[in-house]
Design goal:
By secondary structure, the protein is of the alpha+beta class. Helices cover 68% and strands 10% of the residues.
Length: 296
């Protein structure tokens, strides 16, 4: 089992543990704010399962029906997670509306908060692990899951502060008010996850710094060529796709052109990790006025 699959499986286990703890905190207090926190953990479990399925699909090798592989499956998981976050936020807003109409004092607020904060500490550690390892392994599903968990950590602290203020002042309307704040926060988080995932599905180019790195590698490693142009890039899961045209002098042999391409591809993979690279070799009359000019 790969590291990515292990982390995705671990997210399900962690999600269930945190959900049970937060559900217990809600059960002993009756807090709408803690209910909102528990509901978000329900989403965490569902999306962790979706992420695991997506990662397993993305790991499948290319076949006759999917010659470019299954890497985009992870983006679908991230979109699903964003949509489920938004749905959870709407449910929380509905519960908060009813709580505003009939506010009441909470049962055992301190005990409930202690349980909830314990669950939050677990979430905080796991969110950091998912984001750091997800970036290392270029897994958008893991990074999206980690960002969602980190948002959950921040909102859990906000919930704790709101309940403590309600307990200290006797203003129990602060409980549903905090639930509304949580809902609005996760609405923002969900919309951001959906936007980033749709960018991947729409084959958005790699970020500026990475694109500059690719251009620099081509310019320095393609010695013997004249120019590279029509560079196209995109990400799909952990794979970076790179496509460009390489202009070589007319006297360059097929063997020499192949050696240049091999050198460029080796350096790109060494710097970027897993990549699918397509290089179209062209004669010098295909030179364009703009492009990447090779450093001799």
């Amino acid at each position: 089992m790969t590291t990515t699959l292990k982390l995705a499986t671990g997210s399900i286990v962690i999600g269930v543990v945190v959900l049970l703890l937060k559900a217990l905190a809600y059960w002993i207090t009756g807090s709408v704010a803690l209910f909102s926190d528990a509901l978000e953990s329900t989403v965490n479990v569902a999306t962790a399962i979706a992420a695991l399925i997506a990662i397993r699909v993305a790991a499948r090798p290319a076949d006759s029906n999917h010659p470019f592989g299954h890497h985009k499956a992870e983006f679908f998981s991230a979109v699903l997670e964003g949509v489920m976050i938004i749905v959870a936020a709407l449910v929380i807003l509905n519960e908060a509306f009813h709580a505003f109409a009939t506010p009441r004092a909470l049962d055992a607020p301190i005990e409930g908060l202690m349980i909830n904060l314990g669950a939050t500490a677990i979430n905080g550690f796991w969110a950091w692990l998912l984001i750091s390892r997800g970036r290392r392994h270029k897994s958008p599903a893991l990074v999206a899951d980690g960002r969602h968990l980190f948002t959950d950590v921040l909102t859990s602290f906000g919930v704790a502060i709101g309940i403590l203020l309600a307990y200290a002042t006797g203003l129990w309307l602060l409980d549903p008010l905090m639930a509304v704040v949580v809902a609005l926060n996760i609405l923002w988080s969900g919309s951001k996850v959906v936007k980033e995932s749709l960018s991947g599905l729409m084959d958005e180019a790699v970020p500026g710094p990475e694109l500059d790195q690719i251009r620099e590698i081509i310019a320095t490693e393609a010695g013997g060529a004249t120019q590279a142009h029509d560079l196209r890039t995109r990400h799909a899961g952990s794979i970076t796709f790179i496509d460009f045209h390489l202009v070589v002098p007319g006297e360059t042999s097929v063997f020499e052109a192949h050696e240049i391409c091999d050198r460029v591809e080796a350096r790109l993979r060494a710097e970027l990790g897993e990549a699918q690279i397509t290089i179209h070799v062209e004669p010098e009359h295909k030179l364009k006025s703009t492009g990447i000019f090779i450093v001799d």
